[in-house]
Automatic annotation (TrEMBL):
Gene3D superfamilies: 2.70.98.70, Chondroitin AC/alginate lyase (1.50.10.100). GO terms for molecular function: lyase activity. Pfam families: Hepar_II_III_C (PF07940). Its main location: other. It is found in: Cell envelope. Residues 381-524 form the Heparinase II/III-like C-terminal domain. This is Heparinase II/III-like C-terminal domain-containing protein. It comes from the Eukaryota. It comes from Medioppia subpectinata.
Length: 592
């Protein structure tokens, strides 16, 4: 039955009905044609081994990826201009661009060649693996073949045959035969030491299933469908029940956002017989993105997420449509309004995303009928993720926004050491921030990751205890996290002592945020117990951290008469009274 609907309701036919020339504003059409005409005057560049090896040499991943993107962007402008005008003058250069992509040694990005047995460097012709780049290229080529395949047959019938051959060699066979590509999750391998099903899963599966619907014959398509559903199921089974994304909103766009594209594709080709609307986990996965929204292009960021970004309106809209959720539809329209509909299309053209431009065009026909509005809920509690967001006024940036997290320093390859960190915004503007992520380098996903300054806990809003920072590992996590809803706000409490190694000598460190909407205040209370420890003795010291600060100074004992008794150094623990009053009282308790 599904196969029958795939034949009669192909995704390709759905988008062909868009009547592209009528959907594009006239000045955008003119811009595309101008770019395509200019592209005809430029030469196609050559890929060099030295460029591919650059990532291994100095960590530069963007020169090579930028070259690939420029090649695809040029080709996309030629293809869209051909569709708009029907002018044969573009066909020869379109054939050149497609043939060059078929001739590329690999569609894998150099930074991801660790997936092959030969490791980083140049692609090994003896092994074909699939990464984000290969998945994107396969969908790109499938769309190109759909829109200009018949015209290219007049240039040479071999072009379509080559496309079929390369998609089978580079995508279909490794996808169906390789049981050990970690992002698929089938063998339980811990991908990059963290997740079985990370954002690659939904992203690649959505591109490959799109390729199967547009380009593959029925037997291969059916096999791809079965395998992709099993793989995507592993991904969704690892999602927390609260729908939160432990990699932050930036990677929601690559995970939950790509998952909805997968679900929409399956719904479309089944003639909407596959219905996801009763699945509350999937719905919460979509809602996450507006629940961590602050105002305009500001989102509560953690991990490798920038603080400012406008996420894909078409992906958010697909959630709204599948679950008939007006809040999601309005938020999608809000994001589209921030970008500007024409600006979104222009950015698609700039990025070379051939497949996404037609999806965006379809979304634009719906945005005109949807009121742009950000939900901006007063509170969003993610108990599995251990993340809370609170604001003064619903549907508004007015007042204070608090975002705080507990969690673990090992949940994701995009982790920062930030257990117990938080941000504060005032009237939609940042006051206390999370720096976010910089440019990815070869160190970013290596053993040197936490040498990068903005990944360290000391550059997040977390304490450094006895001179010791938080560390990364499965054991470095919050002891607990608890949210209590109050009449005029809320209270979030977590013990972050577990995020620190033993040398920090901390038994407990309880951070509590009390949010009061009536007074527009956030009170942070720190309560901790430090440890004085050697191999045989432990002494605990408790004190009131509201009244006192603690300072620890290390003094090296160079005098052998002292070091012979006390060792190579002595620590001085000082309690510094915060009050300037002439009278006062505080209690320090020492106990075993």
């Amino acid at each position: 039955m599904l196969t029958k609907h795939i034949v009669t309701h192909t995704y390709a036919v759905l988008y062909l009905k868009l009547d592209i020339p009528k959907k594009l504003p006239q000045h955008i059409k003119e811009e595309i044609i101008k770019r395509a005409d200019n592209a005809l005057k430029t030469k196609w560049g050559t890929l060099l081994a030295a460029t591919q090896l650059q990532y291994l040499v100095d960590g530069d991943r963007y020169t090579y990826q930028g070259f690939l993107n420029d090649r695809r962007k040029k080709l996309m402008n030629l293809i869209v201009a051909q569709v708009l005008t029907g002018d044969k003058k573009y066909l020869n250069d379109i054939a050149n661009g497609i043939w060059l992509i078929m001739e590329e040694s690999s569609w894998i990005w150099p930074a991801h060649l660790y997936l092959q047995k030969a490791g980083l460097g140049l692609p090994d012709p003896r092994q074909t693996v699939i990464d984000l780049g290969a998945g994107q290229t396969s969908a790109y080529i499938a769309w190109a073949q759909l829109f200009v395949g018949k015209q290219l047959a007049k240039v040479s019938p071999i072009i379509s045959q080559r496309i079929e051959f390369e998609l089978n060699r580079r995508i279909v066979r490794p996808y169906l035969d390789d049981q050990h590509m970690p992002w698929m999750g089938f063998d339980g391998y811990e991908f990059c030491r963290w997740n079985v099903g990370n954002n690659w899963n939904a992203w690649i599966n959505s591109n490959i299933i799109m390729t199967s619907f547009l380009s593959l014959n029925e037997p291969s398509r059916n096999d791809i469908i079965k395998r992709s559903v099993l793989s995507a199921d592993i991904f969704t089974n690892r999602y927390p029940n609260d729908g939160g994304d432990n990699e932050g909103p930036h990677y929601w766009a690559a995970a939950g956002g790509r998952l909805i594209q997968f679900l929409s594709l399956m719904s479309s080709v089944s003639g909407n017989q596959i219905n996801w609307s009763s699945n509350q986990l999937l719905k919460r996965t979509g809602e996450y993105i507006y629940r961590v929204h602050i105002d305009k292009d500001h989102f509560f960021n953690y991990g490798d997420t920038p603080a400012r970004e406008i996420y894909d309106p078409s992906l958010v809209l697909q959630y709204g449509l599948i679950f008939n959720d007006n809040l999601m539809k309005q938020f999608a329209s809000y994001l589209n309004h921030l970008r500007g509909s024409e600006g979104t299309i222009s950015s698609r053209l700039q990025s070379g995303e051939l497949n996404q431009i037609f999806i965006q065009l379809s979304a634009n026909t719906k945005f005109a009928e949807i009121t742009p509005k950000a939900p901006q809920p007063m509170e969003s509690w993610f108990p599995d993720l251990q993340v809370i967001t609170l604001r003064t006024k619903e549907g508004s940036a007015e007042g204070i926004f608090l975002g705080a997290k507990a969690g673990s320093n090992y949940d994701t390859q995009h982790n920062h050491n930030d257990v117990g960190s938080f941000v504060l915004y005032v009237n939609g503007l940042p006051a206390l921030i999370d720096i976010g992520v910089g440019t990815y380098t070869i160190d970013t996903f290596s053993d040197h990751r936490y040498n990068i300054w903005n990944f360290q806990s000391q550059w997040h809003n977390t304490p450094t205890i006895n001179g010791i920072q938080q560390q990364c590992g499965p054991q470095f996590k919050a002891q607990y996290a608890k949210y209590t809803k109050l009449e005029n706000g809320g209270e979030f409490e977590t013990d972050i002592a577990g995020a620190y190694p033993p040398e920090a000598q901390v038994k407990s460190w309880i951070r509590k945020w009390t949010f009061n909407r009536n007074t527009n205040t956030v009170v942070l209370t720190e309560k901790y117990v430090l440890i004085l420890e050697n191999k045989s003795t432990k002494l605990y010291m408790s004190y009131d951290s509201i009244q006192n600060d603690v300072e620890v100074d290390r003094h090296d004992t160079q005098d052998p008469s002292i070091s012979g008794i006390w060792g190579q150094y002595i620590n001085r623990v000082s309690l510094v009274t915060k009050s300037e009053a002439l009278e006062g009282e505080f209690v320090v308790k020492f106990h075993l």
